[in-house]
Design goal:
The chain has 244 residues and is an alpha/beta fold. It has eight helices and eleven strands. It has one domain: 3-Layer(aba) Sandwich (Rossmann fold). The strands form two sheets. A seven-stranded mixed sheet has the order 3-2-1-8-9-11-10. A four-stranded mixed sheet has the order 4-7-5-6. Strand 2, helix 4 and strand 3 form a beta-alpha-beta unit. It is globular, with a radius of gyration of 20 Å.
């Protein structure tokens, strides 16, 4: 088959870039978050409420809303700098805003603040540049706000996944889909690497369904993180183990 003009241009550019250790490749949109959400929505079941933990400015929930237009959304975000943007989404879309981190029990926790905000995380003892933020549990928010299941739960929590899930035990019983940012390295003491997270969730009735947005570490190209989707182990997609 003859090469297209784009293919020829890409091949010529790669001849130039190769000595620099660079390579142009076609972007695979199948591994973007929109692709994951579209496939999950097509597979079902439906989601009545999405719980977005580590919501930042709400951009993930806005994206998910395109694929789940009938769902309610509850967004956990403790940073004061994000509250104005989230208030706009509450007014525009009716999103529920929880101005707190999610955790195992209500209270407070030290939060390390990344200069770009999105890399902020629950701090280990002795970390500098922290502030104290409130903590709520997913279960209590679901109960107090009378949020209906089935639930989708998205976590962007930088190694704090187990405490968040501990505070969501009842909610997980009615959860149909989890989307969790998972890591190939142990970010904090007691946090799980991605294969450990898969095993932990499989013991609780969830299997890995899909992935999106794999990221490599700049220093050496090693796999750093990805978003993994988990469905219940009795989901019809798991009924067949063959490739075809």
């Amino acid at each position: 088959m003859a090469e297209s003009l784009k293919q020829r241009l890409r091949r010529a550019a790669n001849c130039v870039f190769h000595p620099l250790g660079l390579h142009l490749a076609r972007r695979d949109r199948a591994f973007e978050m929109d692709g994951l959400l579209a496939r999950a929505a097509a597979h079902g079941p439906g989601i009545a409420t999405w719980i977005d933990v580590g919501a930042s400015d709400g951009s993930w929930s806005r994206r998910a809303r395109r694929h789940y237009p009938a769902a309610r959304f509850a967004l956990f975000e403790p940073l004061a700098e994000r509250q104005a943007a989230l208030a706009t989404l509450r007014a525009k879309f009716g999103f529920e805003i929880v101005a707190a981190a999610a955790g195992a029990a209500p209270g407070h926790v030290s939060f390390a603040i990344d200069p770009g905000l999105d890399g902020s995380w629950v701090a280990a003892p002795g970390t500098t540049g922290t502030r104290t933020v409130p903590v709520e549990t997913i279960d209590r928010v679901v109960q107090e706000r009378k949020l209906p299941g089935p639930f989708g739960v998205k976590l962007d929590t930088h190694g704090f996944e187990l405490p968040v899930l501990a505070g969501a035990a009842r909610t997980l019983e009615s959860a149909a889909l989890l989307v969790i940012e998972a890591y190939n390295f142990q970010l904090t003491p007691g946090s799980l690497r991605f294969h450990e997270l898969c095993a932990w969730l499989e013991a609780r009735g969830f299997r890995c369904l899909d992935l999106a947005d794999p990221m490599r570490r700049p220093r050496d190209g090693a796999l750093w993180q990805m978003d993994l989707a988990f469905a219940r182990a009795d989901h019809p997609v798991f009924a067949a183990s063959g490739y075809d």
